Amino acid sequence: MRTSVKPERRAGEPTEAADQEQPAETDEVLLPHDLPILEEGGLAEASEVELSEDARRERLELAAQLSRRPMSSAMLERLGRWLSFLGRLLFAHVLFERRGIDAIRDCAERGTVVYTMETHSRLDYFYFNYAFLKHELPRARFANDLIVRPWRAFWETLVNLVRRRRIPGPRKMEALILRDEATFLFLQRPRQKAEDRVTYSQPYLYRLIQTQRRQETPIFVVPLFLFWEKRPDPRRASLLDELFGTVQSPGFFRKLVNYVQTFWQTFFKFGQPMVQVSSAINLQEFLREYPGADSSDASELLRARLEEFIRQERHVILGPTASSREQVERQVLARPELVDAMREHAEHTGQDELSVRRQAQKLFAEIAADPSLLMIKIFSATLSLVWYRIYDGLEVDEEGLERVREQAKTSAIVLVPSHKSHIDYLVLSYVFYHYGLIPPHIAAGVNLSFWPLGPLFRRAGAFFIRRSFKGEDLYPVVFREYLIRVLEEQYPVEFFIEGTRSRTGKLIKPKYGMLDMMVRAFASGRLDAIKIVPISVGYEKIIEERTYRRELLGEEKQKESLAGLLKTPKFLTSKKGRLYVEFDEPIDLGDYFARFGIDRLQPEDDALDALTVRLAHRIIYDINRVTTISPTALVATVLLNNPDRDASISRARLLHELGFLLHFMTRQDPPVRLSGALREALASRQAALDALKQVHPEQHPPVSLAYDEHADLNDLERQHLESAMGRAVASVIDRALAIFEKEKQVQIHGKHHARTYTLAPQARHEIAYYRNTLVHHFVPEGLLASAIASFNSPAIALDRLMDQTLFLSRLFKYEWIYEERAEFKNVFMRTLDDFATQGWVTLSRAEEDQQVQITEPRQELDYLRRMVLTFIEAYALMFRRLPDLVEAPVERDPLIKEVIARGREELSKGQVHFEESLSKPTLLNALRLLEDWGVLVRHTTPGRRRETISYQVHADWADGQRYRTLLTRLETLLNPAHTD
């Protein structure tokens, strides 16, 4: 069907000439007659309607002929011996991740694939020919403006000259799509002007839209990216850029230079070229988004969508167009907020504004990062060596990282990892660089700016922050404006919300400074979108074990230096197991404001303060939730939970208790994240149970190890299940025990099933670090079990049990972060109901005088109690010193040392049960709690280097009666069998 109306041509709409003139594509297929798809004056809108049967048949005939005789631009179906060798030689170093391969394969299964790339490149096309053959992906049967078979192109040119007829490229692409053949489309040539780009590729996009409207099978436009160099284009093109193309849109010679450069860089572990497959555009769904658009408008919208995808992918991988440090300094110092602050500072101090500006410049120089791609590559190469020498590998949550990638396309990303080791500063940068994301700017403590590592860290993206802004009025404004500028440019920003490394393995209560700056910048409208990503960085073994042990026992923290890092024991000679990186769901700050009903642009200060505190605790809770459970953490928990601290534990008991821990954690909702080795071992859990039944068929009834079938097990079945789970992971646990044995922290005696394991006394603090990485999963159960034990009775009134558990929950407010907006009563009843489901307690349902019956002395309850018992003992040690603080204030640091010293004496006498209770961070938390409760008053005395903190019992508590009552309650929780 034709129309006699000549439509008005829109900007970017292909004309007849544009549809026909493709000088580099010379393929020709002989047809009985031309296909009737062109009108006299241009591309007719009649193409929007259904084709006639003759027209459809002619198109299918063309497609069949094109399929039988590949065009000169079609990818090779096989490479042959020499081309295969050449492909392996040239492209073995290119990273093509499995997720990208799977994405293409999924599109090919559901429809027809049209690959697209931004810039024409023969080298890239040849790589994808090689890669598609290697991974068995659909090969492109056509590519615009490209020749793969030159002899065939030469012959076809002669035929075209003789017959004076050629088929335009868009029509060939359409015919192949009708046959469900993949095609390839370049959007532009290097160094091409904007108007020429439209002429170059718009006819193909127009034809794609038309073709989709004429068929039911979806067409998937799949944007491909091949980054030979991870450096953004400059803001201003140089003369060389004009001649040879930019880094990301190179001409032939620059492409060759880029290739040679990345080839040797890959050899030296400086990074490698990578393929990125962007989100595919389903043209059926795309057209549904614009029901009123004709093919011309739709093709322009498709180009805009593709260009936006290209911009987003380039930004995520390469970052924004780089500015020099001097440019950033000028931009930050020119910000109105900082200009006003400098003026006010000059008026307040009586200085001239030029002097104040110089102070701001010095502060900027102290703070700002100066990232260099070369330095990042050097760090990458160095870290690859370090990981190989001290770790068995990294386990990265790739699904979580992909969520971060998607969010980074449209929002500023703030990465908030746990902080357990100095290596934390390097891990995320290494992961981001190797997974094709721009490495983050990292907020590092100013104590790490020492020479020579400080300048190197700065070049790798670190910016430095003082631990305190107290007494400063200009510094916090310079820091805030620099931070906002980095976020405005949408660089990922990484900071440690705990403020310092955890010496205990347990996450520290959050600090609010940087988070508050971001929240207020967002609330004021200075930042449009922020996504906060809680991240857990975990280690099977950390390199600072010995250092942490000394600090836990009261020694002063040593200032970081190059010599100090080099003296880290056996830094490059001992294996530390595996390293784990897990990502939680990003927190959208806009959604978080809306969730709590806060007006973003007109918030009250009190509301922002409360939101910042709540958000900080939410981040810590989320980090805990996604922390990987490592084999060393499981082993440490079992060894430390031995009620006789000096006794050995048999292999059978070790494996059964491991099974208890695994059973407990895997039935949580959602289940905890286990290390890859543990997951793989439990993946064959049913096979492990079958093996167990073969050994003792009369003792082990059939029990499924599937997680969703744990609810209705009786005691015997549960014991068999736990034993089977423990045996399933035995080989993984043996590797963890071997790491501890090599460090002389665990002694292994005997052979095979007769082995016993003894924890070295001096290693309890070091081993406790790993147990504390998982103890948060047991807190509600541990607190309830401790409260039950404190009554030393088979029947307990429900209200008294709830009150005792609430006391424990409040006691440890500075130890753990509880679930956001979860009311205590709901958590308590949920945990109690779970105890009842397990058969450990019975709860009467009478409305009045409800009772909790302990079915019998339960080993499980005692086991859960011991998970938190060392913290109860540490608090008791501090509470016992309260009489010493009545008469006069006592300095905090000497007080901590004195408590630890007395504790060690009592430990030798058997009056203190656990050496790990003598922990400086836990004792400091106890002091903080006593201050919060009003038991102690804090006195601060300024000093030359730092202030001195002292504590004294509050006058209201000075008679001793109230704090003795408090101590008695704590002693009851610690030693229930000895209470009246």
Automatic annotation (TrEMBL):
Keywords from the named record: Acyltransferase, Membrane, Transferase
Superkingdom per UniProt: Bacteria
GO BP terms: CDP-diacylglycerol biosynthetic process
UniProt feature coiled coil, ranges: none
Keyword Membrane included in the entry's annotation: yes
Stored SMART domains: PlsC
Disordered, as annotated region: 1-28
Start-end of Acidic residues biased regions: 16-28
Entry's localization field: Endomembrane system
GO terms of molecular function: O-acyltransferase activity
Family, similarity comment: Belongs to the GPAT/DAPAT family.
UniProt name for this protein: Phospholipid/glycerol acyltransferase domain-containing protein
